Amino acid sequence: MTGAPVVLPLTPQQRGVYFLHCLAPDSAVYNVPIVLRVRGGLDRERLQRAVDVLVTRHQALRLTVRESDGQVLQLIHPAGAAPRVEVNWTPLPGADLTRAAAEVVRYAGRPFDVVRGPLMRVDVAELTGEEHAVSLCFHHLIIDEIAATALAGELHRLYEDPAALPAAGPEHQYAEFCAGLLAEPDPLGLDWWRERLAGMPVLPLPEEHVPEDHGLFTGDRVDFTVPEDVSARVAEVSRAHRVSEFMVFHAALLVLLHRWTGAEDIAVGTPMSGRVDERFAKTVGFFQNTVVLRGTVDPGQSFAALLKASRRTVLEGLQRQHVPFETVVDAVRPSRESTRNPLFQVALVFNRRKVEQDWSLPDLTVEPLPFPWPTSHFDLALTLLHEYGVLKGDFAYSAQRFSRATAERLTAVFLRLLDGLLADPEAPVGDVELMDVQERSRMRELSSTTGRHVLDGRGRMLPLGFQGAVHTEEAGRLVPTGERGRFAPDGRFELWRDPVEAALEAHPGVLAAAVVRLPGTEDGSGEQLIACAVPRPGAEPPTPRELSAHLQTRVPAHLLPQRVVVRDEIPTGADGRPDPAALAAVPEPAEGTPEETADDAPRDAVERRLVELFEELLGVPGLGRYDNFFDYGGQSLLAVRLVARVAEELSRPLGVGVFMNNPTVAALARALAEDTTAGPAGLVRLRTPVAEPSDVAVALIHPVGGTLMCYAPLVGLLPGDTEVVGLERVADAHPDDTTYRDLVDRYATTLAEALPGRRIALLGWSLGGVLAHSVADRLTELGHDVALVALLDSLAQRTAEDAERMSATSAELSALAGSVRRDGTAVLGTTPEQRLLMRRFGVDLDLLRDTPAEQAARMLEDWARLLGLVAECAPAKITAPLQLFLCADNPAGYPQALAASWEGLGGALELCRVPGTHIDVLASPAVERVAAAFTERAGRS
Q: Which of 254, 325, 641, 812 has its CA 20 to 30 A from that of 205?
């Protein structure tokens, strides 16, 4: 059968998986492997025939994905036109089972091409004619646990007889389910979830610094077996309290998370089948839905009471499991971050049996083959299952968040906690002992040494890594200090610091800061965070809007305060701590400073036109002179367009770097009046300290886009006494730059004249790193002292292949500029290669398409000219030390290639690993680590 594919939008469940797949396309986190040991003579041809029939019978196995006009579509191909699933057969004569398993797992770990397909793979490693290791691997877009079980039964029958099942497949196929799901929303169910999850706080998991290089969704798991007597008590308690085993584990997990974090309002995610329509009970496809179970833990309540509450919570979730998780997320609108699940950080999975136990083949012995799978969907996930009558489990953890030692310690605490909860379900959950005698003795020792004890809300000592209230001993009594802290896994005492307070105090105009929490109101809304900042004497007092913008680039979204107030001092209560009531009573900005109320209207014709340009480009009406361009969705390309419009309509040449420093209408108008535009060489003074500057000045070098916009978050994190300048590229301003040497010489001369006699630390992201290294070399030739060259995820151009690749990219951009002039900006991003190139440049394709064609073409041409010059780069060894920042979430092997490219091109080479990808390195949380490491290293140079 051939013909056109059935085309449908992705289901909400698939959209969530596809979004995360795009975040880490080289990760195997959404590969679903089934790994088996097969003994007795596996027949290659019979296996291939059986697989062919499976693909013919089930639409989901013939599925691929395509992006079109901003929409992501699934294409279900006809059986005769679908990509074939070829059985990959690898002979491994003489290999042992361990090596064979490693081979098929390596195949299973390869990323799927969701555009070309197929999204199923079968790999076989043949040890002997009688023994094989087999991996059947699927992309999660097309399968869930029930579908895998259905396929297991069919493969058994089809291996025995390819005609045992009709090729037409089940009556009700996946496309029918998808079409019905997309056509039948449930507003009542959605309203219930919206109300149920309103105001839900983020679980404050005590993360730790993990120094190893880990990519997005990289993880590991700690396996455990529940002791037989404890497993028996699980069944007994379940029967006695009329709850399922899942409800027992849910309640126990809530207690663990409460004791670990101190949180009382806790959300846990769990997968449910999503097959509420019996017609699709055995249809192959991705039906599984995630349900959020929100529970409250009071340390004084009994485990029996918590079980009763858990029963109600789970049943309510089951009744509404048909409402897609992604739809719930859209309705609840929580703060979103790319590296975290938006509604929960911890998952719970309970299976009656291991899915591999369902796979068999006639006349052969088939059994599950254990294998490592270093991925994790969540910060933490607890999985429990019955495997051949034994209750087993594992804690899967994100390697970006936690170390293995922490996961092992948490596993031991969970088993001890589970034992204690089941031993006496009527006892308060906060009184169950978490440590054995040896651990308690060690904690007492540590507390005595530091003179500080970390206790939970019931005055009990907490294990290593658990956060609690800090106490000191006074007159033989333990007295709370009002602070929170923990003993880190290595035994060090760590005092917890609010990240908002730390970020505010990093602002050059802030002396001190405090954050208070106001409890939720009776109407069910959540708690409110209020931040108070005290201005630094001698500096211009920052406005609340300015500080809010400052926080948005430095603090995770879920931690941002609802209000920021500026006061001469932080109001305190009788206990000396910040007074929430006093801060809540501070009038809203609308009743406060003139700058943010009556004075917000534009003052003259220039400001009126700037307000109009802001509103037009941002698509936001009603802006005022103190509204920040970047608070309302402004990005680098929009800033470039604004600068061009200002130059065209107001006849005022303006550097993008100047605009970055003056992103409000009022500040920009003042900058235009003072003519503080970039000089002919593109020098921008990003910060000039009020007091005596530090010994080392910082020079930031633009990346391929030519602007300094990307460095805005970094500049705000550098110490207040650091002088910061930047070099941006002014298009068409320097026709004399005919060689790379001309460009580098001009940049170095400009810096030497702008910072006479100063030691300079240079920093560049991406292509900016290559430029910074070359400029440092020339500065040294001019007799200037270079303290450090920092390279942010930058590749040295030192081979002929590097030069050829750079020249080819330059030619590609030139050709693209011609196409834009001829056919308009709609041609941008029409190929995967173009999209990848723009992603590497950090360019938003949608914004580039919205740019006037002539302006977009000029930008592309300038990028092409710059790359053409850099292709001539032949880096020499310099004397200055190098600091290379490597992004942990880049494709496997890439960080190592970057490090190798800079080897031998400077003094000591320091490698610093930060989270995120190439385009995330100058955003939170990576940029905080970059600023800290760069500041510390520059200070030592």
A: 325
In sequence order, the 6+-apart residues with CB closer than 8 A to the CB of 527 are: 199, 201, 517, 518, 519, 520
Cβ atoms of 100 and 125 within 8 Å: the answer is yes
Structure tokens belonging to residue 661: 């420093």
Q: 3-state DSSP call for residue 429?
A: helix
Helices 245-261 and 228-240, packing angle to 10 deg: 110
Cα–Cα dist 674/895, whole Å: 44
Residue pair 345/292 in contact (Cβ under 8 Å)? The answer is: no
* Residue 122 tokens, joined: 């079968």
Alpha-carbon span 663 to 608, nearest angstrom? 15
Distance CA 377, CA 47 (A): 32
- Look up residue 680 and give its amino acid: P
> Which amino acid is present at 15?
R
Instruction: Look at the alpha carbons of 895, 901, 903, 908 in this order and tell me if their dihedral is positive or negative.
Output: negative
Q: Helices (H), strands (E): how many in the chain?
A: 28, 28
Compute the distance between CA of residue 455 and CA of residue 797 in angstroms, rounded to an integer: 55
Torsion region of 622: left, alpha or beta (phi above 0 gives left; psi -120 to 50 gives alpha): left
Handedness of CA 865, 867, 872, 876 (dihedral sign): positive
Residue closest to 682 by CA, chosen among 875, 852, 862: 862
Neighbours of 313 (CB within 10 A): 22
For 856, the token pair is 């977009």
Q: Give the predicted TM-score (pTM) of the model.
A: 0.65
State pLDDT tens for residues 825-846.
888 888 777 777 787 777 777 7
Question: What confidence tens digit (pLDDT) does each residue in 134-146 have?
Answer: 999 999 999 999 9
C-alpha to C-alpha distance for 308 and 535, rounded to whole angstroms: 51
SS3 of 27, please?
coil
| Structure token digits, residue 207 | 């993360």
Three-state DSSP state, 39: strand
Instruction: Round to whole Å and give the CA distance between 839 and 844.
Output: 7
The dihedral formed by the CA atoms of 19, 23, 28 and 34, expressed in degrees to the nearest 10? -10
Q: Is residue 564 a contact partner of residue 551, using CB atoms and an 8 Å limit?
A: yes
- Measured CA distances, 424 to 52, 232, 428 (Å): 55, 14, 9
CB 154 within 8 Å of CB 57:
yes
Contact 149, 355 (CB under 8 A): yes
Residue-wise pLDDT tens digits, 583-623 = 888 876 554 444 454 456 788 888 888 999 998 888 888 88
Residue burial 63-93, b: 16+ Cβ < 10 Å; e: rest: bbbeeeeeebebbbbebeebbebebeeeebe
For 112, list phi and psi in degrees, rounded to 5. Answer: -85, 145
Q: Which whole-number Å values give the CA distances from 162 to 154, 359, 808, in the listed order?
A: 10, 17, 51
- Assess contact for 266 and 254: CB atoms under 8 A: yes
Q: What angle, 0 to 180 degrees and rounded to 10, lies between the N-to-C axes of helices 832-841 and 800-823?
A: 110
CA 211 – CA 888 distance, rounded (Å):
10
C-alpha to C-alpha distance for 14 and 4, rounded to whole angstroms: 22
SS3 content of the chain, % helix, strand, coil (to 5): 40, 20, 40
Phi and psi (nearest 5°) for 927? -65, -30
